[in-house]
Amino acid sequence: MRIQKTYSIKYLGVIIDNKLSWKPQISSLCGKLSQACGVVCKIRHFADMKILRLIYFSLFHSHLQYCLIDRGRAYKTVIRPVQVLQNRILKYMTFSKRTSSANNIFKLLKILKVSDMYQLNLKKFMYKYNADILPSPFNNFFSKLHCVYDHATRQQVSGNYHHKRVRTNYGKKCCNMLVLLHGVAFIIILKCCHYICFPIE
Question: Which of 18, 70, 119, 176 has the smallest set of CB atoms within 10 Å of its CB?
Fold first, then answer.
């Protein structure tokens, strides 16, 4: 039996390419988000903001949130079309001009940008790992400093995790590296909080 070479595969709704660039997945995602933008653009004249928010979270945010902790690792140039579509749908919802800034709209509607959603997902992941409520395959995802060094260090006393040195862009984009860089600084704060304290996007 001859094994056929493929450059991408779809698994559980996520398209994984051979270079882990996430370009095919984001391209497919943009098609779904564009459809949601079209729905909001047509229905905004007959619905109030409460209904528009329900449509946004049902048709747009649900696709945006799915597997974001992996897809969010893509380069900014690759993920930028997703942010453009999010800006567009919010401008449709508020009847704003296409050339106007979307920053104030995000604050007005209390909706997070794609990059902020990604950061929040990383911190949620780190909180769950620190609280030992993740599935068992993640048990050895990180290493404590006291398991790596025999001598005492200042970071070891704080209960921090070991940062592996990476030199390639692929290594810097690995999930465990990004979670460490963005999540460890919040461990002390999160020890005093509960998971339900995280705001809803």
Answer: 18
